[in-house]
Amino acid sequence: MVQPPTFKDDTTPHHVFRLNKAIYGLKQAPWAWYSALKGDILEFGFMNSKVDSSLFIYNTKYVTCYFLVYVDDLVITGNDHIFISSIIVQLGNQFSLKDIGQLHFFLGMKVIPTTTGLFLPQHK
């Protein structure tokens, strides 16, 4: 941490402030998390969707990959498992994350992988 510019004390420039509550409890925390995550995703070559700010798309001649962010839940899918694994490793180097493997449920929706894509039944 560094001293905020408006509260800088020139006599003790290396002192920092003690927070009264955890950073994740601050009202700015969700935006800070999203901004940091978005910056890294864009550095990997993804483009932000024009219709949904939580969707990121990576599309080249051989690789198509979709990255969906919902608060702190991340879904990544695409046609190249090696590319997906490398993105997960790179994100793991930047953030504390847990890969729970194949997607079965997301936001209360059942997800069934098929040979042609993902099937979202509407029973639930």
Architecture blueprint of SSEs:
Elements: H1 29-43, E1 47-48, E2 55-59, E3 64-70, E4 73-78, H2 81-94, E5 105-106, E6 109-110, E7 112-114, E8 117-119
Antiparallel strand pairs: 1-2, 2-3, 3-4, 5-6, 7-8
Would you write up a description of this structure?
The longest helix is centred in the first third of the chain and has 15 residues, at 29-43. It is elongated, with a radius of gyration of 19 Å. It has 124 residues and is α+β, with helices and mostly antiparallel strands. Helix content is 23%, strand content 24%. The protein has one domain. It contains two helices and eight strands, in the order H-E-E-E-E-H-E-E-E-E. The protein starts with 28 loop residues before the first helix and ends in a 5-residue tail after the last strand. A four-stranded antiparallel β-sheet has the order 1-2-3-4, covered by helices on one side. Strands 5-6 form a two-stranded antiparallel ribbon.
Calculate the terminal CA-CA distance, rounded to whole Å: 45 Å
Number of helical elements = 2
Domains (count): 1
Based on secondary structure, the structural category is alpha+beta
By DSSP, the count of extended strands is 8
Shape: elongated
